[in-house]
Amino acid sequence: MKPAASEPYYGDLYCEYYLAESDGQGDVRRAALREYVPGLLLAGIAALASAFLANQYGFPVMLLGLLIGLGLSFAGEGEKVATGLDFASRRLLQVGIALLGLQVGLAQVLALGWQGLLGVLLVMAGTFAAGIGAARMMGEGREAGILAGGATAICGASAAMALYGVIGRERLDQARFAITLVGVALASAIAMSFYPAFAKLAGMSDAQAGFLIGASVHDAAQAIGGGFSFSNEAGASATVVKLARVAMLGPIVALVAFWLSRSGGAPSQQRGVRFSMPWFVLAFLALAVAGNAIAVPEAWRAGALDFSKAALLLAVIATAMRSRLELLREAGWRPLVPVAAASLTAFALASGVALFAIA
Questions:
Q1: What CA–CA distance (Å, rounded) separates 95 from 337?
Q2: What does DSSP assign to residue 140?
Q3: I want to staple 321 with a disulfide (CB 3.0 to 4.6 A). Which of 76, 149, 169, 348 is the partner?
Q4: Is the pTM of this model over 0.85?
Q5: Can you tell me the distance from the alpha carbon of 175 to that of 160, in angstroms, rounded to the nearest whole number?
Q6: Do 39 and 86 form a contact (C-beta atoms < 8 A)?
Q7: Collapsing DSSP states into helix, strand and coil, what is residue 59?
């Protein structure tokens, strides 16, 4: 039900109306700057610990941040840190996703050729469908399938967070989101370890191995690293294929936002809220266009990438800290099934395209 006109309300990231906190006199209360500090400081310390451990042991930093955040979820229940953690889990997430647009290179994507591009689109579409189908079979709902399939099809944790930004907490609780992130990170780490070995056993060429790894490993760094572990040529091919998938992040998130707003049962439709594109998706697309239309200094691109990674790491940690462990236990293993189904489908389709369509 839409709030009465006399009640203060805002429209949030998920295109929903919500009642704003009032000071008791009808004025909307805004958080003071100092209220953000404890939560951001807590998330920042956890992020530094994650980065240190990742550097020492070669473990995915996003997965470490997620696990550390879950371990500190008891601290996330405090009122003093809530404002800062909520800011990190939403606003820093949006900024991090938007800045990824500068990393999309149109020339590198077009270098794949029409066969390669069609192969990438086939793998992505099949992976997305497998995630949605498996989620419905397990009774997890369409939104869980969109999250798992989209994260697997595009670029892992970054895509998962972007998709969750338009899915919203009302449609999919944070516990299932956290479990999906764990599953995607683990599946990507396993894929990076085993896919290059499979490519060698299958007698694939450098181009074929690069396509397989670039089209089926979720995380960008792990996809590129896996390609170079096969050969330098395969690494270059995997990089281009992976960039083609990353380039689809903005359009796919935009399509998902439109689909959810128009399909039956969406909260925004029930409340009569008109669909509007999330600003961070528009910013991603604008930066992608600008990055290809003008000469952006490489130092700027590198700085934007570093800032984006830091913002996304803080967002992952904050989201994990705000997750309730009892909901994680209640969700169980079922949210991992769509991730497994999508990952296996991506591997099967990418292997088929690499063997039969890539020279």
A1: 30
A2: -
A3: 76
A4: no
A5: 13
A6: yes
A7: coil
Residue range 175-187: mean pLDDT, rounded: 80
Would residue 37 be called left, alpha or beta, if left means φ above 0 and alpha means ψ between -120 and 50 degrees? alpha
Give yes or no for a contact between 301 and 100, defined as CB atoms under 8 angstroms apart: no
Q: Choose among 120, 104, 118, 112: nearest CA to 212.
A: 120
The letter for the amino acid at 96 is: G
Mean pLDDT of the chain: 78
Q: Which H or E run includes 81?
A: helix 79-87
Average confidence (pLDDT) over 330-359: 86
DSSP classification of residue 274: P
One-letter amino acid of 291: G
Contacts of 160 (CB under 8 A, 6+ apart): 147, 150, 151, 177, 180, 181, 184
Domains of the chain: which residue ranges? 59-357
Are 88 and 43 in contact, with CB atoms under 8 Å apart? yes
Look at 21-25, 34-38, 62-66, 166-170 and tell me which has the smallest mean pLDDT. 21-25
